[in-house]
Write a structure and sequence with these properties.
Blueprint lengths: L2 H9 E3 L5 E4 L10 H11 L12 E5 L4 E8 L2 E7 L18 H8 L6
Antiparallel strand pairs: 1-2, 2-3, 3-4, 4-5
């Protein structure tokens, strides 16, 4: 695996079943095109990336059509659970962007540590 891919796989972690995304660096420090893909996905789901606690998962819950994510404040972590305002026939939450799916494959590879 290329060094850049290893670095990116540490910055953004997608679990193998693509139900959670974890940012381990601030979004502005993530390289393109992944930065734009993550920012657009979060914006589409009304999540401010600056509020997502680093190292915690943004989780897609397809069965309940919801998303959960964590924000850190002075008192600790606050868990947010978001449901769509209206019914979405196309499915909500949307899958993570295609640009990030190689990261899920990296996480499921037997040769990838971590």
């Amino acid at each position: 695996m290329a060094e850049g891919s290893e670095h990116l796989a540490r910055d953004i972690v997608i679990n193998p079943d693509a139900t959670s995304l974890t940012l381990n660096r601030p979004l502005e420090e993530i390289v393109e095109p992944q930065r734009t893909a993550v920012a657009a996905w979060l914006a589409e789901h009304q999540i401010d990336p600056a509020r997502v606690a680093l190292g915690t998962a943004v989780e897609r819950h397809e069965a309940s059509s919801s998303i959960s994510w964590r924000e850190e404040d002075a008192g600790g972590l606050i868990v947010h659970r978001t449901f769509p305002a209206v019914h979405h026939d196309a499915g909500w939450p949307a899958p993570f962007p295609d640009e990030l799916m190689p990261l899920a494959l990296l996480r499921s590879s037997p040769h990838t540590a971590g």
